[in-house]
Amino acid sequence: MPSRKFADGEVVMGRWPGSVLYYEVQVTSYDDVAHLYTVKYKDGTELALKESDIRSQSSFKHRKSQSSSSSPSRRSSSRSRSRSRSPGRPAKGRRRSASQSREHKDDKKKTIQETSLALVVLVLLKPSENNTKRYNGEPESTEKNDTSCIILEQKLKPDLEIKRVLEQYSLRSRKDDKKSEEIFSEKKTFVAVKPIEKVPSKTKELEFGGRIGTFMLIFLLPATVFYLLSMCKQDDPSLLNFPPLPALESLWEWRVFGVFLLWFFLQAVFYLLPVGKVVEGLPLSNGRKLQYRINGFYAFILTAAAIGVLLYFQFELHYLYDHFMQFAVSAAAFSLALSIYLYVRSLKAPEEELAPGGNSGYFIYDFFTGHELNPRIGSFDLKYFCELRPGLIGWVVINLAMLLAEMKIHNLSMPSLSMILVNSFQLLYVVDALWNEEAILTTMDITHDGFGFMLAFGDLVWVPFVYSLQAFYLVGHPTTITWPVAAAITVLNCVGYYIFRSANSQKNNFRRNPADPKLANLKFIPTATGKGLLVTGWWGFVRHPNYLGDIIMALAWSLPCGFNHILPYFYVIYFICLLVHREARDEHHCKQKYGLAWERYCQRVPYRIFPYIY
């Protein structure tokens, strides 16, 4: 991790984006991922600036003293040159008047330059909405006339007001800038920045209820999974009909645990195969980029072939249904052991490899959220592997096992229409994620969150065993739907998928190449980070259109289960809560990263997920 030069609370000079002017600002925070300082100006404006756009106050004061100390020598030199002129020069009194006249002209010229500089400051400090229009290719309207009026008005103000403005923002005239050590426009100068000692980046804002909340979640999440699975096994899965507690010896079987381990390591072998392209992830805090092999879709094809071979040799895949609870317990035990290993190894990890959101110094919190950002064994990335492979592909295998179990238990020659819809919709979702595997490298799970209990349990237990809840429910509670109803549900799922995929593709294409002619119709708000915030297309409709598509698809997955019980709709309720939480995290992160530009974006796009509602 490169040394952080400016500490929180330090008063420095920050360059206003798009200009060469520096103002006095205070550092409020630092983003280890984006390498941006959040600074606050005197007028309350907050912006995210790069380190190269920030200077220490000592360098400015040093230049000011140099400029003032050089003035007497210049005047002395001018007088010396005046005395060395020819004997035919005018009288002494007239020479003094001429010298005073020259100094008066210099002062007048300096005042005019300071006036012009102050006018630029006043214009820059009041950015109008027309700036957004110009960036987006819209006409400038009457802004030029307004600016001319401001200039005319300021030129008539007394010199005292100009001096007050210059002192308030610690500015100097253009004349002094020519002799400074800054790089302004085409003038090459140098700035001596005093290095500041490296400050450890600790997680200040704790999520999930802090230490107490994360401690409770370590027990609450497994309990929720076991409760839902036990409810689905009952004849009456109503919420008030609590299932009896199973015997502890019935929850564990070593053979089941061995099958789970075989599945995990089989996916690890597929991950290590030298097939698929190798891409680089986003830059880390130390500037290094990790490499990832994109072969998730190939792993899915190989898994499908392996399952096909097992079915050909008449392997009873519904064994998963018969021992479903034991598989869930085995996965939970493995995820807990993996989390302990991850935390222990993170204690020896260099500071630049720790997660920005999991470096609080509190054991429980860091254990839950993940202390190390990208734990690797050689080139094997544990977090990236678990994110898509064992759990996501396992979700599809579990759904297939439930389909076969339904046919066997109810003596069906073909699965029910409800089961076919659930399997088809969720298969499309998984295949889409694996086909667009590279897009996951820009998500917060990879770039911000560490790999701890939260992601380990979520990837290996929550995803395969909770996301397959509808298929598990339909085995014990078959639901008959008509073809028109099935067609309507299919249309709903297609609408959700279209919003989800087109919104993500629009964002990814814009990030990859904003100058693509295909994206010429998209308008955006520029930010101090160099990136743009889309204000047209799906991202001008709501701030998180991909979340909207997710929720619509989740509803379509639950509708085939009917309305007899609310249990199949737990996934919809959970998904809404999850996305609202993620949306709040995204809002906070984007506000810190983009500053004033994010506030302007929120004004342009007021709705977060649901149009006209939220």
TrEMBL record:
Biased composition (Basic and acidic residues): 101-111
Major localisation: cytoplasm
Biased composition (Basic residues): 76-97
SUPFAM superfamilies documented for this protein: Tudor/PWWP/MBT
A GO cellular component entry from the record: nuclear inner membrane
Membrane topology field: Multi-pass membrane protein
Residues making up the signal peptide according to the UniProt record: none
GO terms, molecular function: Delta14-sterol reductase activity; DNA binding
Region (Disordered) location: 53-111
Transmembrane portions of the chain: 212-231, 251-273, 294-313, 325-344, 455-475, 481-500, 521-542, 562-581
Compositional bias ranges of the Low complexity kind: 66-75
Annotated Tudor domain residues: 4-62
Pathway: Steroid biosynthesis; cholesterol biosynthesis
Biological processes per GO annotation: cholesterol biosynthetic process
Keyword vocabulary terms for this entry: Cholesterol biosynthesis, Cholesterol metabolism, Cytoplasm, DNA-binding, Endoplasmic reticulum, Lipid biosynthesis, Lipid metabolism, Membrane, Nucleus, Oxidoreductase, Phosphoprotein, Receptor, Steroid biosynthesis, Steroid metabolism, Sterol biosynthesis, Sterol metabolism, Transmembrane, Transmembrane helix
Enzyme kind, highest EC tier: oxidoreductase
Catalytic reactions of this protein: 5alpha-cholest-8,14-dien-3beta-ol + NADPH + H(+) = 5alpha-cholest-8-en-3beta-ol + NADP(+); 4,4-dimethyl-8,14-cholestadien-3beta-ol + NADPH + H(+) = 4,4-dimethyl-5alpha-cholest-8-en-3beta-ol + NADP(+); 4,4-dimethyl-5alpha-cholesta-8,24-dien-3beta-ol + NADP(+) = 4,4-dimethyl-5alpha-cholesta-8,14,24-trien-3beta-ol + NADPH + H(+)
InterPro entries listed in its UniProt record: ERG24_DHCR-like, Lamin-B_rcpt_of_tudor, Sterol_reductase_CS, Tudor
EC annotation from Swiss-Prot or TrEMBL: 1.3.1.70
Family matches, as Gene3D superfamilies: 1.20.120.1630, 2.30.30.140
Record localization: Cytoplasm; Endoplasmic reticulum membrane; Nucleus inner membrane
PANTHER family (alphabetical): DELTA(14)-STEROL REDUCTASE, DELTA(14)-STEROL REDUCTASE LBR
Family listed: Belongs to the ERG4/ERG24 family.
Protein name, entry field: Delta(14)-sterol reductase LBR
Organism in which the protein naturally occurs: Struthidea cinerea
